[in-house]
Design goal:
6-stranded antiparallel beta sheet, 10 Kd Chaperonin, Protein Cpn10, Chain O, globular, mainly beta
């Protein structure tokens, strides 16, 4: 499902992946005990950052990449009942392969 929003600048729209509901010891965790997952899928890219000379800086991530995001970065939004996060590309810590 494609979101109806296009980020601008160096911003990225991601959808968090589901949180793990079972602990390493096999205990089922209630929703209130779950942390927001730091893994997300890149849904849309902005127009790109601009350097001091006005050149557009390409993104290091692509749509469809699974990434690790900063724990407290970005802004949560809901579109058509689906939760997304808009964050600056520098709030992406890495790409999972």
């Amino acid at each position: 499902m494609m979101a109806n929003i296009k980020p601008i600048g160096n911003r990225v729209l991601v959808k968090r992946l589901d949180a793990q509901e079972i602990s390493a010891g096999g205990i089922v965790l209630p929703d209130s005990a779950l942390e927001k997952p730091q893994e997300a899928e890149v849904v849309a890219l902005g127009t790109g950052g601009v350097d001091e000379k006005g050149n557009i800086i390409k993104f290091a991530v692509n749509e469809g990449d699974t990434v690790i995001i900063s724990k407290y970065g970005g802004t949560d939004i809901t579109l058509d009942g689906v939760e997304y996060l808009i964050l600056a590309e520098n709030d992406i810590l890495g790409i999972l392969s």
